[in-house]
Amino acid sequence: MRYAAVSLDAVGTLFHCPAAGEIYAEVLARHGVAVDADRARTLIRTVWQEMDCRASFGEDRFSTFPGGARGWWARFLERFCEHLGEPDAGPFAAAELYHRFSAGDSWSLYPEVPGVLDELVDSGLRLAVISNFDERLPAVLSGLGVADRFETVVFSQEVAVEKPHPAIFREALTRLGLTAERVVHIGDRRRDDLEGARSAGLEAMHLSRDGNGDLATLAELPEALR
Prior knowledge:
The protein is an alpha/beta fold. About 45% of the residues lie in helices and about 10% in strands. Strand 6, helix 9 (about 190-200) and strand 7 (about 205) form a beta-alpha-beta unit. The longest helix has 18 residues, at about 35-55. The protein is globular and about 55 Å long. About 35% of the residues are buried.
């Protein structure tokens, strides 16, 4: 293989959260806010898009927000409740939700991921994660049982910069001790993963599970790398 290492995005590439709506509905019900799982799922996407648009290019939203990641997610919940026309569910609801998504059991690996990671490692490739995520990412990967496959995990809150800014990719290269042409990045977002990686000199492949990318599933990755 021409590459020495593969870096991978986290959410949408390695794992996802199919029960996010159910978790929000369950937790908020205990704090006096009624919302069904489908409505919660829609609002999570809406509020994420709103807050994503307000972020400055390359600036990590978590480390720059008052109160850090917990503060950012508390504001996320507040905005979620505003869309519902409900009062803010309060700090205890925010803290419970933050804790729930700190554990691996609130997330699901895509089914092909463990086998693909093992195949890549067995072929001699070194693995890294590069993700716009907060301080919980290492614990989530550990809870999902895949943390030991990765030599380094670079997340935006830790390095104070988000994809697609090239600095987060360069940080991963520094940790791996490799030049950009020796690493290929895999992710599900064209701007963040494809364009961001290429701006730092890495090659990149777009994972699109609807079939509109270089890969439709990570199961195709080992053969694509050959």
